[in-house]
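Dear support,

I submitted the protein below through the web form. The confirmation email said the job was done, but the results page showed an empty box. After a refresh the structure appeared. I'm attaching both so you can tell me whether what I see now is the final result or a partial one.
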Amino acid sequence: MYVHGESPLGAAEKKSLISGAPFDIVCITGFAVMADGNVRVAVNREKLAHISRSSRARGARMYPLIAPRSVSQGKRLLRSVEARDTAIRNLGRILKVFNFTGLHLDFEYFPPDYRHDLAVFIRELKASFPGTTISMAVFPQTGFPSEYARFHDLALLAPLLDEIVLMCYDIHRPGTAPGPVTSVDWARRSIAHARAHVDSRRLYLGIPAYGYRWTKDGRAAVVTGFQGKRLIHSALSVRDPSGTVRLNGRKDGSFVFFADDHTRAVLTALAKEHRLAGIAVWRLGFDDL
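What the results page shows now:
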């Protein structure tokens, strides 16, 4: 599972086996790569050590989630040979210091014309760290805005990556109209497209443990699985056709959609049906598992 970290570490994800067994990969965020290739580390090392011990005792692997500090800094990084070399040296130190066995990349919302630069960076990572798993989260290529999805060009990325997480969430998000954070039908179509490029044994289905509440003025805020369960008791809830929960009759006029344990069970069954490697849940601390 991918595990998020602000609680207790800062940010992470949690990737679990489809069978419902304990997670087999823990991915810790808090590793931000800058435009010059330096990496800002913002994790509580004592808590990280505790999670590392308990996770490895259960046979789980540990990855850092590597994300650019911002899209603008990420653009400069990808286009600079010197910055990429610096980033690779720093990532090598992180792998050694924290005893990570893989790197998980989270580069999102870049323009499509940076997709070849991303591929170059991944090739350089593979050459620099033989035997280290390189994974990445990618947007679905169906039903997601093409100005963002096309950056994750599976024809380029699939031959380079060891593992790919298909992020079937945020189809509705801040900046869009109110709606479900995911959809079972959307996930099914997204899997079918991805499998044309990626061996299903290397593909994980990314599923949400959260949703959003839209206020009357159109602003959206995250609703975690825990919060969603509490909200059900104060509003009329229905099962939306997407497979998520929709809350109606909010006194403040807001709209709420969130993914609950039923949503995740249906998506997990879908991943199993397509013989995917597993599921990836965003994120520990949000879920109601």
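Response: this is the final, complete result; the empty box was a page-load delay. The CA atoms of residues 137 and 211 lie 19 Å apart.
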